Amino acid sequence: MTYSAGTNTISAMTRADLNEVAAVHLRAYPDFFLSRLGLPFLRCLYEEILNDPSGIVLVCRHNLKLQGFAAGTTEPRGFYGRLLLRRWHRFALASVLPVLRNPAIVPRLLNAFRKTKDEPDDGCGLFMSLGVDPQIQARGIGAALAHAFLAECRSRGLSSVHLTTDRFENDRVNRFHSKVGFTISRVITTPQGREMNDYRIELT
């Protein structure tokens, strides 16, 4: 799949893109939980999304420079559990140093791998991650990636896509998803007490 977005090209991620994708994630979300797990963990995560038959990872390039990415799955129910079952040893190795530095992250890490057990009905994909290099944000790259991701989900036969993001102190991200076309379907409270907006968009 290849999508044009002005002078940019959006295409499927390859293994050669993994280091750049993980690095963009770190730059785009330096204070988020997954970023605190470090570059090796992020690289492992996106590689396993790429390896999964249900995985979708798109990258946006301009003159060969990777500017952003979008990732998700067409089969979210139990998705993280499948990744862990298949490559538990890789995730364990990638998590050793972060856990040693901060053992308190263990419950949240384990919960992250369990969180897709209550996913929506069949036919609804999960938009897991969208990252754009901070130096080139606000240029429409995120929206182009989001629309390309939704187009790919539609081409794979999905009827809808959902995602979750923080409800409070997250105005820019919430505005972005609303502008793309997502609407809030419910509000979820995590075991850590965070309120999350669960967005959904119909593709039909």
Describe this structure in words.
It is a single chain. With 204 residues, this protein is an alpha+beta fold. It has one domain: Aminopeptidase. It has 7 helices and 8 strands. It has an 8-stranded mixed β-sheet with strand order 1-2-3-4-5-6-8-7, with helices on both faces. A hairpin with a 2-residue loop joins strand 3 and strand 4. Helix 1 crosses helix 3 and helix 3 packs antiparallel against helix 4. The radius of gyration is 16 Å and the shape is globular. The two termini are 20 Å apart. The model has no long low-confidence stretch (mean pLDDT 85).
Radius of gyration: 16 Å
Would you report the number of β strands?
8
CATH class: Alpha Beta
Largest sheet: 8 strands, mixed
Reported CATH architecture:
3-Layer(aba) Sandwich
Can you give keywords for this protein?
Aminopeptidase; 204 residues; alpha+beta
Describe the SSE topology.
Elements: E1 2-5, E2 8-12, H1 18-28, H2 33-36, H3 39-51, E3 55-62, E4 65-73, H4 79-101, H5 106-114, E5 124-132, H6 141-155, E6 160-166, H7 171-180, E7 183-189, E8 195-202
Parallel strand pairs: 5-6
Antiparallel strand pairs: 1-2, 2-3, 3-4, 4-5, 6-8, 7-8
Helix pairs in contact: 1-3, 3-4, 4-5
